[in-house]
Design a protein that fits this description.
Largest sheet: 7 strands, mixed
Structural class: alpha/beta
CATH class: Alpha Beta
Radius of gyration: 18 Å
Number of strands: 7
Strand content: 15-25%
Number of domains: 1
Shape: globular
CATH architecture: 3-Layer(aba) Sandwich
Strand order of the largest sheet: 3-2-1-4-5-7-6
CATH superfamily: Vaccinia Virus protein VP39
């Protein structure tokens, strides 16, 4: 079996698993009530709590099974929230969980589909998927380096554990900045590859050895600060960016001032 990039861990797949099996395993172990309560909900609350404004249009890029977008939609029921991923498996799961009344396993793609009148202006080409369900939370398949949205449409863009997995990181950054509105922000969270050993030990001392080992592997799969700075500079975003450690994570905050 040819080795593939793992969209979940940013490493290589186990030789015993196919890519689709790996995705299904990730969904089964990550999209749970416990993970939502202990991980995703606090993460979303932290980001929204740090904003000086209430975002109206939000993009969860690399949304996976859709848990972060669902949490945002719960907190901000009047906002439009879009979860975008390239994986059919992930988008199908997100849609099924979000609307269990769906009779079919739809995978909404940016290449086709319709929308409600009040969100049509978000898209480059007029979408149409309101016939499937009527909601302010939408999941769809799209490429991060070729987003189907119009310029300056989003107040907030979030990537959690996604950037390292993007195939075209440079053009994805440019696309994110293009669809970000004036005064909006992009939050990129990844594990800190170059975290000092003493700090790592302190932050993981209450964790099980198995979880600590898993975290070390995920840290090693991430990019280092120099690599992030390189991409930001090449995308012309360095002067608009702020990179800070946040526990085991590296937080990159990109602003758009017009």
């Amino acid at each position: 079996m040819r080795m593939q990039e793992d969209a979940v861990l940013g490493c290589k797949l186990s030789k015993s698993l196919s890519f689709s099996q790996d995705e299904e395993l990730y969904i089964a172990t990550s999209d749970t009530k416990i993970k939502m309560k202990e991980d995703y909900a606090p993460f979303v609350d932290k980001i929204l709590g740090s904003l000086p404004y209430v975002p109206n249009n939000i993009l969860d890029l690399g949304c996976g099974p859709g848990y972060i977008a669902r949490r945002i939609s719960e907190i901000l029921p009047n906002a439009f929230v879009f979860g975008v991923d390239k994986s059919v498996t992930m988008i199908n799961h997100a849609n099924k969980v979000f609307n269990k009344t769906l009779k079919n396993n739809f995978a909404f793609s940016s290449g086709y589909g319709a929308g409600k009148k009040d969100i049509i202006n978000m898209f480059i080409n007029e979408p149409d998927y309101s016939n499937y369900y009527d909601s302010r939370l939408k999941y769809m398949i799209a490429d991060s380096a070729n987003l189907p949205f119009c310029n300056c449409g989003f107040d907030l863009i979030i990537l959690k554990g996604t950037f390292k997995c993007l195939e075209d990181k440079l053009n994805s950054l440019k696309e994110m900045h293009r669809v970000l509105g004036c005064g909006g922000e992009i939050f990129i969270y990844e594990f800190r590859k170059d975290i000092p050993e003493d700090e790592f030990i302190m932050l993981t001392e209450q964790m099980s050895p198995q979880k600590t080992k898993s975290l070390r592997r995920k840290l090693n799969c991430s990019l280092d600060i120099g690599e992030y700075k390189k991409y930001l500079f090449e995308a012309g975003l360095a002067k608009f960016s702020d990179i800070k450690p946040d526990g085991l994570d590296l937080k990159i905050r990109i602003s758009k001032n017009c």
